[in-house]
Amino acid sequence: MKGGSVNGVGMSTITTTTTTTTKRRWRGFVIAVLGLVFLSMLVPLVFLLGFHNAFHSSLSGSAFPSQQHTLSLDDFTIGAYESHYSNNNTKDQHDQTRHIEDLMGRLTPTLPKEYVGTQVPERSDHSGIKGSFTKAPVQVLQLKGSPGHPVDVDIQKASSERHNANVNNTVLIQPSNGDESEVPCELRFGSYCLWRREYKEAMIDSMVKKLKDRLFLARAYFPSIAKLPVQDKLSKELRQNIQDFERMLSEATTDADLPPHVEDKLVKMEATIARAKSVPVDCNNVDKKFRQLLDLTEDEANFHTKQSAFLYQLAVQTMPKSLHCLSMRLTVEHFHTSSVDLEDSLTEKFVDPELYHYVIFSNNILASSVAINSTVLHAKESKKLVFHVLTDGQNFYAMKLWFSSNTFKKAAIQVLNIEEYSMISDLSLPEEFRVTFQTAHKLPKMHYKTEYISLFSHSHYFLPEIFKTLDKIVVLDDDVVVQQDLSALWRLNMGKMVNGASEHCAVRLGQLEHYLGRIYFNQNSCAWMSGLNVINLARWRELNLSQKFRRIVQQLNMEGRLHEAAASRASLLTFQDLVYPLDDTWVLSGLGHEYGLDIHSVKDFAVLHYNGNMKPWLELGIPKYRSLWLKFLNREDQFLSDCNVIP
To answer: What is the β-pairing status of strands 480-482 and 499-508?
Structure first.
């Protein structure tokens, strides 16, 4: 028994010792594992804390920089981050810290004080932002007024009448290859860009723009600051400043509307923004907010640019209220008075081939009156002048009363309603086109050249049928001013040519190859201009050019061309090799769109042609050329005063 007891105790002791040893081994293993886990958590934490200090020191050092720099949005791209991250893997901790500080210095979202609300960044696509902030105006897609056309031709057709501005078409000859994103403003918005440069004013209401700029920055930082509980005081202060600025800008649009102590509020806002910049925040949140605000700003700028261009086109292509009033008043007055029709006593003059016959297509009373008055005042023998004004039924009676109640020396004036002729359905006025084509093919960027061309319309090709007794006439556009005697035109020997016109060799038919279609033509032929045209009606009838014109129009329409646009193409092709070039001193074109003409050299030309959108009878007319037109208008007429025409 004792022996058994001894053995039992010994076995119990051995078992207890073994259990204790096993527990100690497991305890050491657990401690080792916990130590490894603790170290695995501690090392990244220390590493992150080191980066946190580096970020904080960088931000603190750049909170109040001595010289602010423009934010480069290229630094926000993913590729920039990947590049910096890959480089950091090969550097030691000291280089990493220095690199992070340098990167944060570049990414510090500070904007220059000169930045205003109208500045918009250039955008590459919807996925990212490319380029830095710029003060250049935003350019958007070209406004189009007609259905689609071939890729290399873009025609903008205005649907309104030309009583105040000729029908304005745009022919865009685009190259088959190249960067089409950098299209000049004039190509996109036409003469609106010329007018904008002419009437550009110095920046006004600078304080309002500065307030909008600071509000822009505060809104960008506020979401990130509001997420930090430790910055609750700064968040409330930033929110309060934003609300104050929004309240001020909702009630004020100019500097004069701002409250008296706005400078103090601006200083307070700038101090708050500076504090917000010094707080370490998530750059991704600031970047995202900046992108949202910039998208809104860009959309707003694009909207206003399109709206401005549309309103400009509307202003130049619709009849002003004053001109509409004048036409209606004259029409009513014609039926209320029993005016003597002087045309009956001048019937013989209207068909006498020995006199100087001028033809004007117009539905604008003021324009046709100035064209006739300027011609008569400079004529040596006004009694030999006969003017035939072809208009539509709406303005016929107003025209008759106007020219019967106003005297133009001894010149005879006949007003004809073109709708009374059975072969003419309605009045069509000279067509105006803005032709843009590339001038340099080897340069890295596209260089466009824009030229304005005016041509005959459908109505002009009925001249031989309307004036059957005449062999020679001079056709004037109603947007011209005559400065010299034109009697020398009747002594021109044009040989077998039909149309004596001013050639516009800056545009050759070869440059309009895609625009003219598959019809054969001489590519070196120059384009010709309407405005002042000496027409040999006898030669016209001999060659049957009217029928040739209608045949070309029909052929172009079969190719899918618009009927209105086909007339201009047909005009260029109908008179091919039949144009007698007038001397360059006869006509000066471009006074309706070109700002750079020398006002002193303008007086050396016999005829001034206001082709373009900025007609002299419009408020948008170019001021320095407008005075040359106004001096031939009787501004003391009672009807003009009643309708407030040309104040």
So the answer is: unpaired
In 537-589, the DSSP E strands lie at 579-581, 587-589
pLDDT tens-place string over residues 153-190 = 333 333 334 444 443 454 444 444 444 445 667 666 76
AA letter at 242: I
CB of 272 closer than 8 Å to CB of 222: no
**Calpha distance 429→276 (Å, rounded):** 64
Is 165 within the bounds of a domain?
no
What one-character DSSP code corresponds to residue 20?
Answer: H
Q: Nearest-CA neighbor of 290 among 119, 479, 498?
A: 119
Per the rule left: phi > 0, alpha: psi between -120 and 50, beta: everything else, 531 is left
% of the chain beyond a pLDDT of 70 = 66
Report the helix count and the strand count for the chain, using DSSP H and E: 21, 15
Give dist(CA 167, CA 337) in Å, integer. 35
What is the reported pLDDT for 84?
41
Cα–Cα distance between 623 and 191 in angstroms, integer?
A: 15
Nearest Cα to 496, choosing from 582, 579, 581? 579
Q: Strands across the sheet with 447-455, in order?
A: 167-173, 431-440, 447-455
Burial of 527 by CB count in 10 Å (0-12 exposed, 13-18 middle, 19+ buried)? buried
Kind of pairing between the strands at 480-482 and 607-609: antiparallel
Domain annotation covers residue 378: yes
Please indicate, yes or no, if residue 150 is contained in any of the structural domains: no
What are the distances in angstroms from CA 566 to CA 34, 173, 458, 571?
A: 89, 17, 10, 9
User: What pLDDT, in 10s, does the model give residues 533-552?
Assistant: 999 999 999 999 999 999 88
Q: Which residue reads 């038919």 in tokens?
A: 509
Between CA 516 and CA 173 the distance in angstroms is 11
Size (the chain), residues: 647
Residues spanned by the domain of 96: 2-107
Residue 506's nearest CA partner among 480, 479, 530, 528 is 528
The residues, any chain, with a CB within 8 Å of residue 516's CB and separated by 6 or more, are 509, 569, 572, 573
Among 224, 216, 210, which Cα is nearest to 265's? 210
The single-letter code of the amino acid at 256 is A
Residue 369: name the closest of 642, 641, 633 by CA. Answer: 633
Q: What are phi and psi of 325, to 5 degrees?
A: -60, -45
Q: How far apart are CA 212 and CA 222, in angstroms?
A: 15
Domain boundary among 82, 107, 132: 107
Tell me the per-residue pLDDT of 372-382, one tens digit each, with 9 for 90 and over: 999 999 999 99
Between the alpha carbon of residue 558 and those of residues 86, 116, 467, 518, 562, the distances in Å are 63, 53, 31, 11, 10
Return the structure tokens found at 170.
Answer: 């745009």
Q: Point out the domain boundary residue: 107, 141, 171.
A: 107
d(CA 190, CA 182): 15
With contact defined as beta carbons under 8 Å apart, do 473 and 535 qualify?
yes
Q: How confident is the model at residue 517 (pLDDT cuts 50, 70, 90)?
A: low
Q: How far is CA 634 from CA 358, 359, 639, 641, in A?
A: 21, 22, 10, 11
Residue 281 forms part of a structural domain: no
Total of domains in the chain = 2
Which CATH number do you get for residue 578? Answer: 3.90.550.10
